[in-house]
Amino acid sequence: MTKSRILVADDHTLFVEALQKVLEPEFEIVGSVADGRALLDAAPRLQPDMILLDLSMPLLNGIDAAQQLRRVVPDAKLVFLSMHGDPTYVTEAFRAGASGYVLKRAKASELIQAIRTALRGQTYISPLLAKDVLDPLLHQRSSPASAHSSLTLRQREVLQLVAEGRSLKEIASILCVSVKTVEFHKTRISKQLGLHTTADLTKYAVSHGLVSS
């Protein structure tokens, strides 16, 4: 019997190594990456059946990565494995295309159950989260606290990189655009959010789950 192929995206090496040991008896781990942009590069090349990804990842967070993965590997199932249990983040993950969401404090048996459920084409939400998440998902309510509803994808990419302490030149290189383009996006972001310092933009990005605190 052919094992389902899984790609893991998480920037904590020890966690990834432990995860591989848990999953390898039943699934084939085709690779692991440590940031969202590496994930976008590896996924179309490895063509996994499923991607396990964290919410908070360097360079590109899991939710924005998921939105782009839907285009480059539309058949791959996405299961978030995260320490964040805030209903806002969980709801955004499902809106971005997730088939499952599991907290990192869950037991290994729950993660395996979530993977099996997603591979069958069904949705899995951790029992610890279900009551808080199902209602907004079913009614598709917009979250007033969500950065994803007010900014474009490129603006969110720039905001995350600014919050990570990257220079404008570094951001331009990562996004393959000019420094002037980055400056333009940063200015627009500041005007839209009413935040005019890098410190304020960073606080906003942290509070809205674009980067880890």
Q: How much helix, percentage-wise, in residues? A: 40-55%
The structure class reads alpha/beta
Largest sheet: 6 strands, parallel
Quaternary structure annotation: single chain
- Strand tally is 6
CATH level-two architecture of the largest domain: 3-Layer(aba) Sandwich
The CA-CA distance between the termini, in Å, is 43 Å
Fraction of residues in β-strands: 5-15%
The count of helical stretches stands at 10
Classified by CATH, the class of the largest domain is Alpha Beta
Spatial ordering of strands, largest sheet = 2-1-3-4-5-6
Number of domains: 2
Mean pLDDT: 89
Question: What does this 3D model show about the protein?
Answer:
With about 210 residues, this protein is of the alpha/beta class. It has helices at about 15-25, 35-45, 60-70, 85-95, 110-120, 130-140, 155-165, 170-175, 180-195, 200-205, and strands at about 5-10, 30-35, 50-55, 75-80, 100-105, 125. Helix 2 packs parallel to helix 3 (about 60-70), helix 7 (about 155-165) crosses helix 10 and helix 8 (about 170-175) packs across helix 9 (about 180-195). Residues about 140-145 have low confidence and may be disordered.
